[in-house]
Amino acid sequence: MDYDLTRSQFNRLVRDYRPSQYETFGAQDARFTTPMNHALKCRDRLHVALRSGLQRLPDGPPTIVDFGPFPGSLLRLLRGLEPTRAARLFGAGLMASPEFVQFMRQDADVEVLTVNLDPAGQQFTSKGYQEKVPLPDHSAQLVFALEIVEHLTSPFHLMTEAYRLLKSGGHLVITTPNVTRIGNIFKLLIGRTPNDRLAPPGYNDPNDEWRPHAREYAMHELAEMLRHIGFEIALSRFFLGEDTQDCQQTARQSAIDWAKVPFYLIPHLRGSLLILGRKP
């Protein structure tokens, strides 16, 4: 499929986007300088992920699976795009309340499935969630896993499930924070830990299905993991992934952000990773 979702096209899409109740932060949220929703806040990573994935879709209505679908932004955006209007869309992950599942089915014809993609963590064993996505082998052309691998005790199960679901020539699209980003280096230089977003030692709350970060990755680590599963690396890219651009900031926070800018000329110091695994 010869389809290129340009930045200007994506910006228009996000401007016209009508967020659901699950995506809206609320006009009174003091963290933001403008009324905010999940698609707008995460527009950098959503654009690079959608663009790279859609460029690799074959002709014909595809089947697409989103791992970690809540709050639904990626799947709702896909339903509005020309190449994927007729696609079969699925979400698989946690935080799938009956109300959210029903909304996604009625609003975007998306089937959301409750699946524990991190059985190695054993936090949700007592809930009895299924650990395999209830879709046939070789049934999907594209799987997205955006900002989820950093929340997992071990991403190998997720990657193995994606490999099982994908047809030959299909792609897994992953985005995740870059552990080698300049912000982490700044923290180390002043004697602070770069692990302040990680789950504290001993953290275990099975009622909280949004998990803190378990760990973060460098690009070479993700590439090695994907190759271990059997994927070929179709694309790897460092990008900024700035989701603080519409946040209220103190003068100190703003100065730190400006101090980072020259370092972005070095790709591995940027904030986020995009990597695509292709199933041979």
Characteristic terms for this protein:
single chain; alpha/beta; Rossmann fold; seven-stranded mixed beta sheet; globular
Shape, please? globular
CATH class of the domain at 7-62 and 145-278: Alpha Beta
Helix fraction bin: 25-40%
CA-CA gap between termini: 18 Å
Radius of gyration: 18 Å
- H/E series, N to C? HHHEHEHEEHEHHEHE
Strand portion: 15-25%
The CATH topology of the domain at 7-62 and 145-278 is what? Rossmann fold
The SS-based structural class is alpha/beta
Task: Give the topology, please.
Elements: H1 7-16, H2 38-41, H3 43-54, E1 63-67, H4 73-79, E2 88-93, H5 98-108, E3 110-114, E4 140-146, H6 156-165, E5 166-177, H7 182-189, H8 219-229, E6 232-239, H9 251-260, E7 272-278
Can you put this structure into words, describing what you see?
Strands 3-2-1-4-5-7-6 form a 7-stranded mixed sheet, sandwiched between helices. It is of the alpha/beta class and 280 residues long. It starts with 6 loop residues before the first helix and ends with a strand. It has a domain of 190 residues: Rossmann fold, CATH 3.40.50. The protein contains 9 helices and 7 strands; from the N terminus they run αααβαβαββαβααβαβ. The chain is 30% helix and 18% strand.
